[in-house]
Amino acid sequence: xxxxxxxxxxxxxxxxxxxxxxxxxxxxxxxxxxxxxxxxxxxxxxxxxxxxxxxxxxxxxxxxxxxxxxxxxxxxxxxxxxxxxxxxxxxxxxxxxxxxxxxxxxxxxxxxxxxxxxxxxxxxxxxxxxxxxxxxxxxxxxxxxxxxxxxxxxxxxxxxxxxxxxxxxxxxxxxxxxxxxxxxxxxxxxxxxxxxxxxxxxxxxxxxxxxxxxxxxxxxxxxxxxxxxxxxxxxxxxxxxxxxxxxxxxxxxxxxxxxxxxxxxxxxxxxxxxxxxxxxxxxxxxxxxxxxxxxxxxxxxxxxxxxxxxxx
Length: 312
Ligand code: FE2
Known about the structure:
Elements: H1 3-22, H2 27-34, E1 36-39, H3 45-59, H4 76-87, E2 93-97, E3 116-121, H5 123-126, H6 128-134, H7 137-145, E4 151-159, E5 169-172, E6 180-181, E7 186-191, E8 202-204, E9 217-219, E10 229-231, E11 244-246, E12 253-257, E13 262-264, E14 275-282, E15 287-288
Antiparallel strand pairs: 1-12, 2-3, 3-4, 4-14, 5-13, 6-15, 7-12, 7-14, 8-11, 8-13, 9-10
Helix pairs in contact: 1-7
Bound molecules: fe (ii) ion.
């Protein structure tokens, strides 16, 4: 844990909280109107660098993963292993590879430092640095501005989007994967490097969150089935013209309404586009769907943002 940075960061949080008072009328109304909000300078450059270095440190473990073959194929018989690996990541720090980084038999064909698509889904619980940034005063302040009564973090991911390898994320709503009602989840997506059209920034469909939840990914009630997770409907087709690119500078946080349709393109540039993201749900008077892939458990408690300290 970098205590010097943490101390600087905590003092900065006071400034940020003061700044957010100016935004009192806008964060919530912008999220309601557009389905996303861009918060510039959410993290300082040095803070982004600390998180980025931590994300890169995690890639050193990628070379030691034994079951990489799980990711190297779309064979049906391996689908249940893939689903199992994913579903059991709720209380772990697990590694998800880019398909182009592996040979068909699961050998790395690129340097481990650029082999990962993402790491998830319990960084906010298990890693002291990610925990510190997740339960920060700044995040608490934004949750208050959003009017959340009992916000809880349910998952976290470090996303690499490496040059040449970082794949496309097709148009989707986060509520497809993480369904709560009547209040949808909110994603915090923090750019740790400049996110540009070239390296695969987010693209948003403004206002699309008002059209409800179009599709759900649910735990398969058939426990014997090959697929542990199933979609309830085919993927909708969205008009390309409805999307607008949202390039942002390093340190910007984009708040993402759970129902807004968004996507990102393949990274065809020579620059990475690292990001740290986590999702917050409202626990007060709100239903968390029991068929979501992600469920609360002893090793994966949905901790209240307001009452959880940054550090143990
Ligand atoms: Fe998303």
